[in-house]
Amino acid sequence: MTRQRHFFLILLLGTLSTLGPFSIDMYLPGFPAIAQDLHTTTAEVSLSLSSFFVGISAGQLLYGPLLDRFGRKKPLYVGLTLYILASIGCLLAKSIDALIILRFVQAIGSCAAAVASVTMVRDLFPAKDSARVFALLLLVVGASPMIAPTVGGYVTAAFGWQGVFIILAAIAVLILLAVIISLPETYKPNPAFSLKPKPIIKNFLSVIVDPQFYTYAVAGAFAFSGLFAYVSGSPLVFMDVFHVDGKVYGWIFAILSIGFIGSSQVNNLLLKRFQSEQVVPVAIVAQVLLASLFFIGASLGWFELYGTIVMIFLFLCCVGLINPNAAALSLAPFSKNAGTASSLMGAMQLGIGALASVGVSMFSSHSSMPMAAIMAATSVIALLVLFIGRRFIKQPIKVDPSSDVILAH
Description:
Helix content is 80%, strand content 0%. By secondary structure, it is mainly α. The chain folds into two domains: 1-195, MFS general substrate transporter like domains (Growth Hormone, Chain: A, Up-down Bundle), CATH 1.20.1250.20; 196-409, Up-down Bundle (Growth Hormone, Chain: A).
């Protein structure tokens, strides 16, 4: 493989992996405009974000077997086509119910790109190079929350919220063309691979009964779900409560993303001196304390705009420390079925995150208290799961820092 070809494939796979994050973040600044046009509230609009989370959670479990049964490109064609059609439907939506349903369909389509990009890295690159390639993909994915809302804010101001979905559909069309023309089929279809529910469920059950997996996967998922509560609640908090416009909201979102991305990089330095199982409990305790303080302060009116930004930033720093370590510890017991464990962990993260997002949307309070309440509640649950679950881990399996661990995102 030539150096130029190598670079192009990594760029294309990175673009595939960012389709989901861009679909989540880019339309957030348009929430007030969507609410006005569809004659509803910002809280109701946030349910379209929750339905997207539900869709990508389900897609995590759907596409793994399909990619093994039909090869990599055919499911990708179907997923991207579905995404394009759903994006066009979103910009034509005349009711909030239609938008919620179409966002679910859009998520199912985008998930094909995310799962295929991870799977095809394993196909295309040797083991010694895959860790570096995954690091590049995660860097691209991590940058998207800083870029997408800012771009979305300017697009919404210039062309209306429908312009965001036009751009998302156009991006997906370009990706689909690039996949058809330039991406090789990296895995031959396997007709022997069963798509019957029974063997698939049996495989998932063999993973979930492992105490180390369910302890760190569930605790990590609840800790991570505070991020979903923030993403779902932030348009209402910043644009409705603190009255910033879409452009400023995009910049605030970008700045707050630095907390999550930066702390995940600091984690690499911490792991030179500490083990993952040492970092996780300390970070979760810190998250509980910060989320509790944020909830109490929100209830009593302590935090204005800048105070709210600081509290969320510190909370996201904790999430950035917990997520990679909890994911690595969850996958450490597995070798042959690491893909199954990874997809199950991703589905749990996104599923619990979707519930947290719905929880924020259910409150109609014109304050940051609902978001802070969900962040505090999920953090406490994460700590309880970790405290109880660790008692059932008889012989912890350590994380090998040199291993090619794939983190769910």
